[in-house]
Amino acid sequence: MSDRLQKYLAPVIVLIAILALWEGAVAAFQIEKFLLPRPSVILANFAQVFIFEANDAAVSTAPIPSTSTDRLLVFVPANASRDKLESALAGNFAEFSLFGNQVVLVKGANLDPILQAAFFTLREALGGFALGCTLGVLVALTTARWTLSREALLPFAIAANSTPIIAFAPIMNNWFGLDKPFSKMAIVAIMVFFPMMINTVRGLISVDPRSLELMRSYAASEFEILFKLRLPTCLPFLFNGFKVAAALSMIGAVVGEYFGGPRIALGVFITQEAALFRFASAWAAIIVACVLGIALYLIILAAERLAMPWHVSFRN
């Protein structure tokens, strides 16, 4: 097995093992759904699989179980009536054959509201990510130029970065409006600003003194030193900041919505579903938030590989 295949296959195997242990532990210890729902129940919010058993000699007119069931796999007799299923789905299903059984893949009852909420929250996260990262880089370019300003601002940046998000969320909601997306963008921007600034400053000041002395001996301007020496040296630090900011952006957007927002927001969806004891759909929304955070991280990772293929971490 190649190293590259092993690198990507190992997390998949670990994920499958965790889901299997999770499913088995909940069933074995009979844990209630409001404490910890089974993975299959959570996944049923996204899709359900109706399997029509093959070689069923008995003719059954029993209706197919409702699509609102919390089971991921639903086994039904081969000759069961499909009128109820087809009328309820209105074309939102796909049919195929698997091991001689007719399989119908059905869109989950909560798929659309969860995806709509995820898209709404993703816009807030991306807006705050762009705003916070832009301001962080601009401030870092300024403070890296003058040592005194850097030494004066860094302690405040570290202190502000240590402030919990719950301290900012009510204030931002009050300033910009509870139902306004910009209030959540501001929360995300505050969260990502300081890691971005600190990483960028460290990258800009970590240039080799001999290289800096050489460029100055050739009478290079500060702009030439910045674009030809400082920024290339800063790229690994810059992308480290982007990766941290990508993870924090989804956290900031979702947690900010816990303090209020429109129903379509993912954080509001999670809190309301939990309040109504629909914990499986709340867990499904949490999984979507995790997937979005991982996707943002992987996009930054791909951009890093394209921007600096020369870096030592990408040589193997």
Molecular structure report:
- With about 325 residues, the chain is of the alpha+beta class.
- It folds into 2 domains: about 30-110, no CATH class; about 110-315, MetI-like (MetI-like fold), CATH 1.10.3720.
- It has helices spanning about 5-30, 40-45, 85-90, 110-145, 145-160, 165-175, 180-205, 210-215, 220-255, 265-275, 280-305; strands spanning about 45-50, 75, 95-100, 100-105.
- A 4-stranded mixed β-sheet has the order 2-1-4-3, with no helix packed on it.
- Helix 4 (about 110-145) runs antiparallel to helix 5 and helix 4 (about 110-145) runs antiparallel to helix 9 (about 220-255).
- The model is unreliable at about 55-60 (pLDDT under 50).
SSE map:
Elements: H1 3-28, H2 39-43, E1 47-52, E2 73-76, H3 83-89, E3 93-98, E4 101-107, H4 111-145, H5 147-161, H6 165-176, H7 181-204, H8 209-217, H9 222-257, H10 266-275, H11 279-307
Helix pairs in contact: 4-5, 4-7, 4-9, 4-11, 5-7, 6-7, 6-9, 7-9, 9-11, 10-11
**Helix/strand order, N-terminal first:** HHEEHEEHHHHHHHH
Going by CATH, the homologous superfamily of the largest domain would be MetI-like
Strand content is 5-15%
Provide the helix percentage. Answer: 55-70%
- Regarding CATH, which class of the largest domain? Mainly Alpha
Number of domains: 2
What is the gyration radius calculated from CA atoms?
A: 26 Å
CATH architecture of the largest domain, please? Orthogonal Bundle
Sheet with the most strands, sense and barrel status: 4 strands, mixed
Strand order of the largest sheet: 2-1-4-3
Structural class: alpha+beta
The protein's oligomeric status is single chain
**Low-confidence residue ranges:** 57-61
Number of helices: 11
Distance between the termini: 16 Å
CATH-defined topology of the largest domain: MetI-like fold
- Shape estimate: elongated
- Overall pLDDT level: 80
Number of strands: 4
